[in-house]
Design goal:
about 270 residues; alpha/beta; about 50% helix; Rossmann fold; 5-stranded parallel sheet; elongated; 2 domains
């Protein structure tokens, strides 16, 4: 119904948008530039941002720009990740069966990373998502994860991705050694009002509609309630489009957006 009403060739606000169609805000460009530097310098990187701010999109964009033959990406997302689980997942990603003991798995991990870098011309990128939920034991383990050659060489990139709580967590005295090892960091915030409007127009255009579909008052409500968070923008804009379509409207106006906001708040 939405495609027929508005003339879209596909849903405009969807999380599985092709990477080539991403809206590249100034902040998003800066994020991807920082991510590239993390990879080039084989740093421990830190990316934080509110829920729905676009952290995962930035990671997907980075992965799309890398050559998997030279810079393979391993993505780990497990809230209760233990040190052994970490080593096992990385080893298995490269076809290596993990030993049963953590100490042995750690040694195998170091051997693998060193061999990939020195003999196979590969620099793995390990991305750990939802890192704000990592157990303290796993955070402490990063001292050993990163110390592959007496702290003189790290043959891979490790990027911690998480919500703002992750920054506060790493400031704890217990994790000072990890905090000091973070080479590059970036905090992602919401889009500005102007960028939010440009984001909506961009997504509509990528879905085949170039004419304005949202009135200025509807966009104002969207900006206020989404706080510029892309995931919330997607949710509210989609709800407003559906509401306007069911009422036979030719534009999405403020009442449609207000009802979308109410539905979202009550969900």
């Amino acid at each position: 119904m939405m495609e027929q009403t508005w003339g879209f060739t596909r849903p405009p606000f969807t999380k599985d948008l092709p990477v080539a169609d991403y809206f590249l805000s100034q902040q998003f460009r800066e994020l991807t530039a920082r991510l590239q530097i993390m990879v080039e310098t084989r740093a421990l990187g830190l990316v934080t941002g509110d829920i729905g701010s676009g952290k995962s999109c930035g990671i997907r964009y980075l992965a799309s720009q890398l050559d998997p033959a030279h810079t393979p990406v391993v993505y780990v997302a497990e809230s209760h990740l233990t040190p052994f689980d970490f080593y096992a997942q990385i080893l298995e990603a490269f076809g290596v069966t993990a030993p049963f003991q953590r100490a042995q798995a750690r040694r195998q991990f170091v051997t693998l990373m060193t061999d990939l870098y020195q003999h196979q011309n590969k620099q793995p990128v390990i991305i750990i998502d939802e890192a704000q939920s990592l157990p303290h034991a796993m955070i402490q383990e990063f001292r050993f994860v990163l110390n592959t050659a007496m702290d003189a060489l790290t043959p891979f990139t490790c990027i911690l991705v998480g919500q703002p709580d992750l920054r506060a967590l790493l400031r704890l005295r217990a994790f000072e050694a990890i905090q000091q090892r973070v080479g590059i960091r970036f905090h992602l915030t919401g889009l500005s009002s102007a960028e939010t409007e440009a984001y909506v127009a961009h997504h509509c255009q990528q879905a085949g509609v170039t004419r304005p579909l949202f009135t200025p008052s509807a966009l104002h409500v969207l900006c206020v309630h989404s706080q510029g968070l892309p995931r919330v923008i997607n949710r509210l804009a989609t709800g407003a489009l559906w509401d306007a379509a069911t009422q036979g409207a030719s534009l999405v106006d403020e009442p449609h957006m207000q009802r979308s906001v109410t539905d979202w708040r009550d969900a």
